[in-house]
Specification:
Blueprint lengths: L7 H5 L6 H19 L3 H6 L1 H10 L6 E4 L6 H5 L38 H15 L5 E6 L6 H13 L3 E7 L10 H11 L2 H16 L4 H19 L3 H5 L3 E7 L3 H12 L4 E7 L7 H5 L27 E2 H15 L3 E5 L9 H6 L4 E3 L4 H13 L3 E7 H4 L3 H9 L6 E5 L16 H6 L5 E3 L4 H13 L4 E4 L4 E2 L16 E4 L4 E5 L4 H12 L5 E5 L2 E3 L3 H10 L2 E9 L4 H13 L6 E7 L9 H7 L4 H19 L1
Parallel strand pairs: 1-2, 2-3, 3-5, 4-5, 7-8, 7-9, 9-10, 10-12, 11-12, 15-16, 15-18, 18-19
Antiparallel strand pairs: 6-13, 11-17, 14-16
Bound molecules: thiamine diphosphate (TPP).
Thiamine diphosphate binds next to α3.
Length: 632
C-alpha cells in the first residue's frame, strides 16, 4: 500500500478501514531503514497515526504543517513522495533526517532546533490574513519542546493576535530523556487523571456521604456547580488562559478518533490546541522499552534492537564520555562544581554526574537561554557551574553568554560538545559557527583539546581559573591518551609538537591529528613542516606567533569551523600586529566556508571540505610551490 502512495492525494483514496494496514507498513519501513542508517526512530514511530490523520484531513502542501524540531517526520516523508529514496536517509547526497525546504514542498521550513513551530505558524497565519488567503496552518510540538521559552512567547502573541492556527501538542512524557519541569508535571496530571475528573469524584463522594437525605436535590445542584467548575478546572485551562481553545487529551494512536476530531477542530476559528497522547517508539518493542536509546538510534539488529557490532569499538572513547567521567571526578573534591544541561543529560554525558551528585545537577529542559542565565546566577553566588551544551544549540543563548556571563565576568565553564562536523543530523546540527560567534565576546577564554587527555587537562584548568571559559570538542571517538604533567596547560600558551623549517601548521583541536599526519607525509617529499597545537583560540600565544612569523615564510592555520571570523583569521590579525616592519609570512587557512554543511558521515564531510590529512598535504604542496613562484 505504502509504495503506491506518492502524495497525500493518494492517501485520501484509502478508506478509514485501510489506514491501519498503512500504519503497519510505514512503521516497518521506518524500522528497517533506521536499523541501517541510524536516526530518530522513537519520535517518528510515535507520530505515525498523527501524520496520517493530518495529511488525511488537510490539503497539503497548500495547507501547512510545521513540525517542531522535525525529528518526528519520517512517516511524513514516506507519504509525501520520498518512499523511493528513503533508504538514503541521512546519507551523503540522500534525504535529510529533518524537514528540508530544498527537498520537498511539503517541508515548509528546514528545521532541527526545537520550540520554533508555534512562532513560525503564527507568522505564516498573520501573512495569510494580510493577503486575504485561505489556508489551514498547523504546528505540531512535543511536550519536551514545549519547555523552550520561545513557545511561551509565541503562545502569548497568538492569544493576543487571535489568529486561526491549530497547535497539536504531542505528549509522550519524554523529551530525549524523561521530560522535566513543572509544565511536564502539569501535562502528566492532565493525562493520568484529569483534574476535572478528580474533582467530580470528590464532589460526588461528598454528596453521597455527607448529605444522604437531600441527596437527589444536591446531585442536581452539584451538576450545575460542576458545569461552573468545569470552566475553571478543565484540563487545558493553562492554554485557555493564553487565549486557546483546548481539546483533549486524546489517544494519539486511535486513527479514527484523530481523523474525526481533527475534521471538527480544523473547521473552527481562532487559536486552538489539540492535545494528543502518544507512546514514544510505538509499534517496535525495543524502542517502546528504551525510548532514550532509540531517540537518536545508531544502526541496530532489527530482531533484538541491539547495536550493530560494526558500530561498536571497545578501544575507542568519545569526547563526551571522557568529559562525563572527568567532570564527575573533579566534582568529588570540588564541592562548588555544579552541572547544567538543557534536556540532554545523556547526549552531553552529564547523566553520570547526575547519578553521583543529584543535588548539584540541573536539567532545565530545552531552555538554553535559561540554562546560561541560571549558570550565571549560580556563579554569582559562589559556585562553579559547568553548562554542557551542543555547539549548535548554544547559538540560541548568544545574548545570555554576552550579558549574563561575559559582562559580569563570571566563572562559568561552557562545555561545548558536538563542535565541528556532526555527520548525519546535517545542516541544522553542524557545530561550525561557535568559534566565530564566541571569539568576539569579551573576557572569555576559548580552548580546544587535541585529544582526550588534553580535554581532561583543559577541564582541570577551566574549573581552576576564575574566568568565563569555553572548551569546544568534537563528536568523535578516539583511543585514550594521557596528559603528561610536564605539558601543563598555561593560559594562552600553545604547544610545539613538531619542529620544521619550510612551513608552520598551526592547528586547533581536532585538526592537530590530521596536521601531524600531513606533516609526516610531506616529510617524505622533503617538505619540512612544523606543527603547533594551538590549544587556545583566545587568548592567542602572542610570543610564539611572533617567533613563528620571524622564522617562517609560510604559515597554515587549521580549524574545524568556518574560516570567516574564525581562529585562523585571529592568527592572521595577530601576526599582522606582531610583525611590525617585517614582511608578513604568506598564510593559508584550512577550515569551512560560510555555508551550511549537509548530512553525511563526519569523515565524508571533512574530506569534502578538504580537512582530511591527504587533502591538507596536497594543498600545502601546491601552496608552497605557488608561494615560491610568488616570492620570486
Ligand atoms: C534548541 C534545541 N535544543 C535541544 C535539541 C535536542 N533535541 C532534539 S529532540 C529533543 C526532545 C524533544 O522532545 P519532544 O518535543 O517531546 O519530542 P519527542 O522526541 O518526545 O517526540 C531535544 C532535546 C534541539 N533539537 N533543539
Amino acid at each position: 500500500m505504502l509504495e503506491k502512495i506518492k502524495n497525500p492525494t493518494e492517501l485520501k483514496k484509502l478508506s478509514l478501514a485501510e489506514l491501519p494496514v498503512l500504519t503497519k507498513e510505514i512503521r516497518a519501513k521506518i524500522v528497517e531503514t533506521v536499523s541501517k542508517t541510524g536516526g530518530h526512530l522513537a519520535s517518528s514511530l510515535g507520530a505515525v497515526e498523527l501524520t496520517i490523520a493530518l495529511h488525511y484531513c488537510l490539503d497539503t502542501p497548500k495547507d501547512i504543517i510545521i513540525w517542531d524540531v522535525g525529528h518526528q517526520t519520517y512517516a511524513h516523508k514516506l507519504i509525501t513522495g520520498r518512499y523511493e529514496n528513503f533508504s538514503t536517509l541521512r546519507q551523503l547526497g540522500g534525504i535529510s533526517g529533518f524537514p528540508s525546504k530544498d527537498e520537498s514542498d511539503y517541508d515548509v521550513f528546514t528545521t532541527g532546533h526545537s520550540s520554533t513551530a508555534i512562532s513560525l505558524a503564527l507568522g505564516m497565519a498573520a501573512a495569510r490574513d494580510i493577503k486575504g488567503a485561505k489556508q489551514k496552518i498547523v504546528a505540531v510540538i512535543g511536550d519536551g519542546s514545549l519547555t523552550g521559552g520561545l513557545c511561551f512567547e509565541a503562545l502569548n502573541n497568538t492569544g493576543h493576535l487571535n489568529k486561526d492556527i491549530l497547535v497539536i501538542l504531542n505528549t509522550n512524557e519524554m523529551s530525549i530523556s524523561p521530560s522535566v519541569g513543572a509544565l511536564s508535571n502539569y501535562l502528566n496530571k492532565i493525562i493520568s487523571k484529569p483534574i476535572y475528573n478528580r474533582f467530580r469524584e470528590a464532589l460526588q463522594n461528598f454528596v453521597k456521604t455527607r448529605i444522604p437525605l437531600v441527596g437527589s436535590r444536591m446531585f442536581k445542584l452539584a451538576a450545575k456547580f460542576e458545569e461552573v467548575l468545569k470552566g475553571l478546572i478543565i484540563p487545558g485551562i493553562f492554554f485557555e488562559e493564553f487565549g486557546f481553545r483546548y481539546f483533549g487529551p486524546l489517544d494519539g494512536h486511535n486513527l479514527e478518533l484523530l481523523i474525526n476530531t481533527l475534521n471538527n477542530i480544523l473547521s473552527l476559528k481562532g487559536p486552538r490546541i489539540l492535545h494528543v497522547v502518544t507512546t514514544k517508539g510505538k509499534g517496535y518493542e525495543p524502542s517502546e522499552n528504551f525510548p532514550v536509546q532509540f531517540h537518536s538510534a545508531v544502526p541496530f539488529e532489527i530482531d533484538t534492537g541491539e547495536i550493530k557490532l560494526s558500530t561498536q569499538n571497545e578501544n575507542l572513547y568519545s569526547y563526551t564520555e571522557v568529559f562525563s567521567k572527568k567532570i564527575t571526578e573533579l566534582a568529588q573534591d570540588n564541592k562548588k562544581i555544579v552541572a547544567i544541561t538543557a534536556a540532554m543529560p545523556d547526549g552531553t554525558g552529564l547523566y553520570r554526574f547526575a547519578e553521583a551528585f543529584p543535588e548539584r545537577f540541573f536539567d532545565v529542559g530545552i531552555a538554553e537561554e535559561h540554562a546560561i542565565c541560571f549558570a550565571a546566577g549560580l556563579a554569582k553566588n559562589g559556585l562553579k557551574p559547568i553548562a554542557a551544551i551542543y555547539s549548535t544549540f548554544l547559538q540560541r543563548a548568544y545574548d545570555q553568554i554576552m550579558e549574563a556571563i561575559s559582562l559580569q565576568n563570571l566563572p562559568v565553564v561552557l562545555a561545548i560538545d558536538r563542535a565541528g562536523i556532526v555527520g548525519g543530523d546535517g545542516v541544522t546540527h553542524q557545530g561550525i559557527f561557535d568559534i566565530a560567534y564566541l571569539k568576539s565576546i569579551p573576557n572569555f577564554v576559548l580552548m580546544a583539546p587535541k585529544d582526550l587527555g588534553e580535554l581532561e587537562a583543559m577541564l582541570e584548568f577551566a574549573v581552576d581559573i576564575n574566568k568565563p571559559v569555553a572548551i569546544r570538542y568534537p563528536k568523535t571517538s578516539e583511543q585514550l591518551t594521557k596528559f603528561s604533567l610536564a605539558e601543563k596547560i598555561k593560559l594562552g600558551k600553545s604547544q610545539i609538537l613538531r619542529e620544521g623549517k619550510d612551513i608552520a601548521l598551526i592547528a586547533l583541536g581536532s585538526m592537530v591529528k590530521p596536521a601531524m599526519q600531513a606533516a609526516s607525509d610531506l616529510a617524505k617529499e622533503n617538505i619540512d613542516a612544523a606543527v603547533i597545537n594551538a590549544r587556545f583560540i583566545k587568548p592567542l600565544d602572542e610570543q610564539l606567533l611572533k617567533d613563528l612569523a620571524l622564522r617562517f615564510k609560510m604559515i597554515a592555520t587549521l580549524e574545524e569551523g568556518i574560516i570567516d571570523g574564525g581562529f585562523g583569521i585571529s592568527i592572521l590579525e595577530k601576526i599582522n600586529q606582531v610583525c611590525g616592519e617585517k614582511e608578513l609570512p604568506k598564510i593559508i587557512h584550512f577550515g569551512l566556508p560560510t555555508e551550511f554543511v549537509t548530512h553525511g558521515t563526519r569523515e565524508e564531510l571533512l574530506e569534502s571540505a578538504g580537512l582530511d590529512k591527504d587533502s591538507i598535504a596536497q594543498k600545502i604542496k601546491v601552496f608552497i610551490k605557488s608561494s615560491v613562484v610568488w616570492q620570486r
